[in-house]
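Feature request, filed as a ticket because there's no other form

It would be nice if the structure record came with a short human-readable summary line next to the C-alpha cells. Right now we just get the raw output. Example of a typical job, pasted below so the devs can see what we mean:
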Amino acid sequence: MHLPETVIFDLDGTLIDSAPDLTRALNHTLSTLDLPPVDLPAVRHMVGRGARALIEQGTAASGIQLEEPVLDTAFETFLAYYADHIAVDTFVFPGVLKALDLLANDGVIMGICTNKPQHLTDRVLDALNLTDYFASILGADVVPDRKPHPDHLFKTIEEAGGAPATSVLVGDSPTDVETAQRAKVPVIAVSFGYSTVPATELGADRLIDHFDELPGALASLLDKPESPPL
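Raw output as currently delivered:
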C-alpha cells in the first residue's frame, strides 16, 4: 500500500477522547465563578480552539462574558486542575494504536499539531503511552500562530523532517480542515470527533468512521488526488 511520507494528526477528538476530563476541568473552573456546570455532550462541541475558548464558551452557556482579568484567572485555574486530572477518563479511540503501528512499520513519519498547550499535550501523550510514535509534537503555545494558521502545520511537518507536498493532516474539526486547505495539504476527517459541523459537511478530502479505515484513506489520496472533497 502506497502511503504518504508524513502524516500529521490533531489530538483531542482525533486520536484521543479527552472530553470527559476537559468537562471535569471546565466545570471545576465554572464552580469557582459560581456558574452552573456544562454537560459532556455540550463540551464535545466546544473543544478544538484551546482551553481559553473552551472557558469562554462554558461561561457563555450561562449568558456570561468574563472580563479579561477574570478570564485570565479562570484560565490558570482550568490549566492547573486539568494538569492534575489529565488522563482520568481520557482514552485512545478504537483502532488508533493499530493504525499508528501500521504507519510506523511502513516508515511513515508522524507528528501532532494541536491547539492544546504544549505541557498538557506532552503530559497526556505520556500518560497514554503515545509519545514515541511522533517525530514532532507542537502545541498552540510554542508557535507564533496556531491553527487554523497554516504555519502551525508547516512547522509541525518541518520539525518532523517532512515536506508539505508529501504530507496529510488528519483531524476532526473545521479548524483542522481550514488549516489543511490554507496549507494546500490533503486532509482526512474523522466522523467521531468534536466538530460542531456535521463531519460530512467539513469539506475534507476523505472521511473515516474508524481508524481501521485510515491506511486505505491515505492510500486513496495518493491514488486519486483529483477526487472531489466530501
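Something like this underneath would help us a lot:
The first strand starts at residue 6 and ends at 9.
The beta strands are 6-9, 16-17, 91-92, 109-113, 136-138, 167-171, 187-190, 206-208.
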